[in-house]
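Here's a chain:
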Amino acid sequence: QVQLVESGGGLVQTGGSLRLSCAASGTIFGIDRMGWYRQAPGKQRELVATITSGGSTNYADSVKGRFTISRDNAKNTVYLQMNSLKPEDTADYYCNARRYYSIEYWGQGTQVTVSS
């Protein structure tokens, strides 16, 4: 099992910044990708950004140029730097880890609210 603990959510004004962190623990060998997803009220969960063990990144079009995903392998932690935040970024953000290209784990989520 992999445990994921998110932190860093909160309330910010439009144009502001937040940095989310996700620390992985437990059976972490075999994790090939980590990432962030979000779910706004009444909407489906959607991909925000992912980063592979090799460092390749992928972003949703809606966050490209504003969000940056990174990872610290020594700390088994992935980060999401969110800049130029918009009200439409308001959602619960979930950390995700994938092992052996198939087994997925989720964190409990952290709330991000962007006020207009």
Summary: The mean pLDDT is 96. The two ends are 40 Å apart (CA to CA).
